[in-house]
Design brief:
By secondary structure, this protein is mainly beta. Helices cover 13% and strands 33% of the residues. It starts with 7 loop residues before the first strand and ends in a 10-residue tail after the last strand. The protein binds succinic acid and fe (ii) ion. Succinic acid binds next to strand 5, strand 11 and strand 12.
Length: 208
């Protein structure tokens, strides 16, 4: 078992099979209201291999002009649907942070999709962790230090696992090396869904 960087917590089998099934149904409804689309890299406009959508007051988007959070779906122009209560409850149980998340990025990986090493740093409140939920096919996840080019380690994330990047691990570089197709029967089609819950704005004092 690899040693994870400080602040990176892997909660294996955090969601049981019934919870995963219920969550997939809720995410299906999110995707019906806010369809998956293919973001583009800032500058070059190169399409991501991962398709994305969001739920929550704010959603993370990327296009030629950059990365940002915004309240509207870039293709439909409508607000993102709310974050399912089940995910808010998960955040309350694992985040150790007193305010709710505002954004939930939904990533869909087909067999060929990958996500290069990056930091999640578009949020104003870095005191809150990033809480990530894996559903469907397993992946090889890579996580490292908070500097580019630092040492990295890999671990397998399977359906129902939760990963928390918090404290010293909040700005750890991370990415998805590869998907292991056909390793889960949870989704109707094969593939992997990852949900990342984030707090974006700094809370007002004494408010949530
Ligand atoms: C992300 O970094 O946005 C997603 C990570 C993952 O798919 O596990
Ligand atoms: Fe990320």
């Amino acid at each position: 078992m690899n040693v994870l960087p400080r602040g990176v917590r892997h909660i294996a089998a955090c969601l049981d099979r019934d919870e995963q099934i219920a969550l997939v149904e809720e995410i299906r409804a999110v995707v019906e209201a806010a369809p998956l689309y293919r973001p583009e890299m800032p500058g070059t406009g190169k399409p991501f291999s991962v398709r994305m959508t969001n739920c929550g007051r704010l959603g993370w988007v990327s296009d030629r002009s950059g990365y940002r959070y915004q309240p509207l779906h870039p293709a439909t122009g409508t607000p993102w649907p709310p974050i399912p209560e089940r995910l808010l409850a998960l955040w309350r149980s694992v985040a150790a942070y007193p305010h709710p998340p505002e954004a939930c990025l939904v990533n869909h990986y087909d067999a060929q999709a990958r996500l290069g090493l990056h930091q999640d740093r578009d949020e104003d409140d870095l005191a809150a962790p990033v809480v990530s939920v894996s559903l469907g096919d397993a992946c090889r996840f890579r996580v490292g230090e908070t500097t580019r080019g630092g040492r990295t380690t890999s671990l397998k994330l399977v359906s129902g696992d939760v990963l928390v990047l918090g404290g010293e691990g909040r700005l750890a570089y991370h990415g998805v090396d590869r998907i292991y197709p056909g390793t889960s029967a949870l989704l109707r089609k094969s593939g992997r869904i990852n949900l990342t819950l984030r707090r974006v704005t700094k809370p007002e004092p004494d408010a949530s």
